[in-house]
User: What shape does this take?
Amino acid sequence: MSDGAPGAGRADERSVIQVYRDNNLLGPNAEQYEAETEALRWLEVERRARRLEWVASRRTANKLEKAPIERKEALEAAYDAATRLGDDHTVKGFSSVDLGAAGFVTTPLVEDVPDERIFAELREMRLDVMDARHLTFAIHKGCDYFLTMDKKVLKRRAEIVARYRTIDVMKPSELWTRLKDMEGRDGSTR
Assistant: This one.
């Protein structure tokens, strides 16, 4: 599969393409992007055929907790269909309070990103906090693609891909086209 594109090399080694979907493409959230419906359906077929793997972090679950009740079940089903990869935070240390004879209480100090350097670089690119968290996780975990419809992220994709050659940022229709092109070049169905 290595066609020189960012993210293209590691998928060969794994034989499954890892794709992190931004929250705007989870379940019913994707319904607003009618032009992407066919691509998302085709990508879901690829996932069910085990050629593509949706991955997610706990940051996605944090957003689901705030979802309106009428959308929550469908969003949770989409989240449950994804592989949740661990290592999505950094333990910075512990805070302890000595209560004397009553014992003590220890609380972990946790940063919500697995790699603070990547997160800081993405923030310097003027991405908002949640977008930078999602992308940090996807880059840190070695995902091949980050799918989004977020115009702010797509506007910065050239900068992101130039900095992190291991991932590509795109819309679902662009990934669909890339996978079809790769399939045609090597003559297999992957």
